[in-house]
Amino acid sequence: MLYALCFLLFMIGLYCVVVKKNLVKIVIGLAIMEYAVNLFLIMLGYRVGGTAPIIGRGDIQAGVDHVAAHFVNNAVDPLPQALVLTSIVISLGSLALLISICIRIYDKYGTFDITEIRRLRG
Amino acid sequence: MSRALPAFVVVPLVAAFLLPVLGSKGKAAATLLANLVTIALLALAVACVGHSGVYEVGTWPSHIGIVLVLDGLTSLMLLAVNVVSAAAMLFSVRYMEQYTAKPKYLSLFLLMVAGMNGVVITGDIFNLFVFLEIASIASYALVGFGCEHEELEASFKYMVLGSVASSLILLGIALVYGNTGALNMAYTAKVIQQTGINAGLAFAMSLFIVGFGLKAALVPFHAWLPDAHPSAPAPISAMLSGVLIKALGIYALSRLVFNVFGVSIPVSWVLIALGVLSMVVGVFLAVGQWDFKRLLAYHSISQMGYVVLGIGLGALILAQGGNPLWASLAILGGLFHLVNHAVFKSLLFLTSGSVEMATGTRQLKQMGGLVERMPYTRTACTIASASIAGVPPFNGFWSKLILVIAAVQAGFFGLAAVTVLVSLVTLLSFLKVQRYVFLGELPEELQDTRESKDSMLIAMLFLAALCLLMSLLILVPSLRVAVLQPAVDVLVEGVNHSIRVANL
């Protein structure tokens, strides 16, 4: 169910990219798509009632085997979180570039409307 | 040799961030440094041929950490990427003088090289995505480097489609992780081999086909390429058409299809359909173009079709359990055409840059008679045109011949006929280029056109010589066994290859 909602969010982003005529709205659509993918990644590693995947210094005193068993049984998967962190940084880079290109286009054409920005054809 | 693998990423990455520090005064130093980096990488790529191995980043064992893998296909792609980048960088020395902010251009260029090398050497799916984005973001910025109306528009279009593609690929990667619990290509391959393809993985595969298809500009997804490639500065067009669409699109897709998911009949048919569509649609759109670089860009789509057709045909024969000999022949044709296209298409874009710099125009109708003024550029352009059209004895002829033979042997006579037909139309459109650019009357305003000098000339002649010499790769058995055959074997062996290399 949650996965379906996440996919719906992705499709909303894609719809926005395909249908909207305003450059900034297209960029917003791309951002929504990226958020949907990040959300999906986080959900992959989530477990209901899970703990943060951190082993504190105090926990070790209970015995290594016990801590490891507790960790495996209760902690959420940390790998998708690391992936999302990377992916957020990447999308920050590409969104910053997109927005700066939008600003330069506005300087040149004086509009954000893609139907008026059509010098290339063929 | 696998110990040297990180250098392919680290060296250009460090240099890319070092160059802007030199500032505007150190322009000559920056240019020299950038050229040294690309030439050193080329030497390293040549040294890697024939070696194989796995490098564990940070000595983490391969099921936890990231691995870099050197095998036949990787070394072939490294060779293609670094040959083209060395030539394009050499060409930029003089060509980029007409732009301001050359050090920024050089550092973006090196960033793109680092990303492409990373995509090719990585053995981890998420790591592949990261390098893919590094190369893509650098290329978005480079397409819009001129900051004029057309460049910005093309760059925006490219960036939107590229970002959609990246999101689709990342979603596919998330699905693969969710279904297999691994990101390492070899582990993923092993899990998929044991459990088979379920619905989630099939959906991931279709996302990968669309995502990498967008990056490779195969026909239903090609809308950005004819705008983006001509808008970039000429050496960047050469890089984009020559290697970027291959490393980010075709290489990554075939790595996943063959070595991670394993070949299957539906996927093979999709690849063949995409290949044939790209070939036919690309070439017919190209014939009608009057903008030199736009015409070349459409031909890139068409020629990528040949590569995908060869790889798809090989996958189909393997999936149907046919004779592996014909499968490896089809894949050999595809991969050989991939490296050939890297060389002759980048040469064509460099000559178009040379012509544009000398005449100030890209419109074919405004040129003519340049054969007297630019004899060397003309020679290079003719050699590259003959290669792309498949005229013997140039390299393009051999790869197309192999594809036709493989198609006939596998019983696809229609495909063989289409391949030959597309090749003829290609020849036609390059006769048009020769006729309008180099032959005919020299217009009044182009009387004082001059031949391009030193570094541009060396880069073009280097690639032109390669167009001739690369025929030897297929004709001399020892060279074929050393360079091409290992790459073909990687794909033919498929899933078992990645499992064997990772020692699972």
For the secondary structure, the number of strands of chain A is 0
What is the name of the CATH architecture of chain A?
A: Orthogonal Bundle
Mean of the pLDDT scores of chain A?
A: 87
* Average pLDDT number of chain B: 90
- With strands numbered from the N-terminus, the spatial order across the biggest sheet of chain B is 1-2
Strand content range of chain B: under 5%
Brief sketch in words of this structure:
By secondary structure, chain A is an all-alpha fold.
Describe this structure in words.
The complex is a heterodimer of chains A (122) and B (504). With 122 residues, chain A is mainly α. Chain A has one domain (2-47, 63-109): Helix Hairpins (Orthogonal Bundle), CATH 1.10.287.3510. Chain A is built from 4 helices and no strands. In chain A, α1 (2-19) packs antiparallel against α2 and α2 packs antiparallel against α4 (78-109). With 504 residues, chain B is mainly alpha-helical. Chain B has one domain (2-501). Chain B is built from 21 helices and 2 strands. Chain B has a two-stranded antiparallel sheet. In chain B, α6 (149-180) crosses α9 (225-231). The longest helix of chain B is centred in the last third of the chain and has 36 residues, at 324-359. The A-B interface holds A 10, 13-14, 17, 23, 26, 30, 33-34, 36-37, 40-41, 44, 79-80, 83, 86-87, 90, 93-94, 97-98, 101-102, 104-105, 108-109, 117-120, 122 and B 126, 129-130, 133, 136-137, 140-141, 144, 147-150, 152-157, 159-160, 163-164, 166-167, 170-171, 174, 177-178, 183, 226-227, 231, 289, 291, 294.
